[in-house]
Amino acid sequence: MATSSTPRLSRQARNAESSAIRDLLRHASRPGVLSLAGGLPAEARFPVAEMADAAAAVLRRGEGLQYGLTEGDADLREWIADRHTADGSLTDPGDIVVTTGSQQALDLIARVLVDPGDTVVVGDPCYVGARQALAATQPRFVGIRVDHDGLVVDDLAEQLEGGIRPKLVYVVANFDNPSGAVLSLERRDRLVGLAERYGFVIVEDDPYGALRYDDEPVPEVGPGSDSVVRLRTISKTLVPGLRVGWMVGPPWLVEAVTIAKQAVDLHTSTVAQAIVRELVTRPGWFDAHIDTLRPWYRVQRDSLVSALDHTLPEAEFSRPVGGMFLWLRIPGIDAASVLPAALDEGVAFVPGAAFAVHRDLRDHLRLSFATVDSDQFAEAVRRLAHVVH
């Protein structure tokens, strides 16, 4: 609702939209509601004791208390570079900027690449937070259909041949949010070829890549290509509250992002970076921690799938091989219209329309299997089915 102060806001602030998911979480946190809505990692899997020990060690040494480099902690960037190199993308610490979550990296990239009116390509459906960050630069969004194999790159090629010239293409290649899709190797290769031909930047966001439960990993998008910028985070694998993420990109973009970040926050929290560095550089610790997460989340996913198969057989979905989300279609419903009754019944989800760019996704829902206890999925789906029916 407009107030007497609204005219004092900038045009950008007046046009900014709140996240539908953030707004929904206020209702989903009501007592008695089983929330399949938020993309929150499971607090039960947070390594609290190890983090307390790491924080104590850092503070005993007096580390992380002073201003730091805008690019980020040097030893942490060294570890990040080694991880990316091991994954097949030869990476130098100078290619990395540590950011306040990968969300800030996306915001900074948009600031330095996109002018008002420039074309930005996203998947359709698209992660709401990405659209929020990109929308601040007032681009023209072009949505490209996402199917079981991820972004339909053939559709993008047709649009390019028809004359669109995007500044960037945003893609979640592994376990897309909300669809859960994995971009196929063939499409990854073709997307990089299109980027090099038409001159756009691929922003490959991968917050969930380590959370793979089935199948073999697919190689990174365009290893070694200067057309690809990679965004990563520890939010889904360690804890989100530290707000530590990073971007890996070519030198010209790293320099521009570093200058933009100086104006925004000088640097990411040095204490948070020091705690993360203390943990992840302990030999073998981080990989062992990931190995405890995968089987736990696999049980969560299987419990939700089983509940849907048993109680809501008309639902159409593909069993995700990783990540935190299941993308569901129930023919004939309007999920947004059903949501208030679902909340009254004690179950929350995110309506598919929240992720739509151009497509009609009213009969879709995004369900998260990350936070509800595995023995509660049967009841959560029973409540959902009762409202739908």
Q: Main beta sheet, described?
A: 8 strands, mixed
Class per helix and strand makeup: alpha/beta
Strand order of the largest sheet: 2-9-8-7-6-3-4-5
Find the CATH superfamily of the largest domain.
Type I PLP-dependent aspartate aminotransferase-like (Major domain)
CATH T-level fold name of the largest domain: Aspartate Aminotransferase, domain 2
CATH hierarchy class name of the largest domain: Alpha Beta
Tell me the number of helical segments per DSSP (H or I, 4 or more residues long): 13
Residues in helices, as a percent range: 40-55%
Number of strands: 14
Task: State which percent range the strand residues make up.
Answer: 15-25%
* Average pLDDT taken over every residue: 94
Tell me the count of domains. Answer: 2
Backbone shape: globular
The CATH architecture classification of the largest domain is: 3-Layer(aba) Sandwich
Helix-strand pattern: HHEHHEHEHEEHEHEEEHHHEEHEEEH
The first-to-last residue Cα distance is 35 Å
| Rg calculated over all Cα atoms | 21 Å
Low-confidence stretches: none
Notes on the structure:
There is one protein chain. The protein has two domains: 6-47 and 287-388, Aspartate Aminotransferase, domain 1 (Alpha-Beta Complex), CATH 3.90.1150; 63-283, Aspartate Aminotransferase, domain 2, CATH 3.40.640. 41% of the residues lie in helices and 16% in strands. It is built from 13 helices and 14 strands. Helix 3 (48-60) packs across helix 10 and helix 12 (335-345) crosses helix 13. The longest helix has 27 residues, at 285-311.
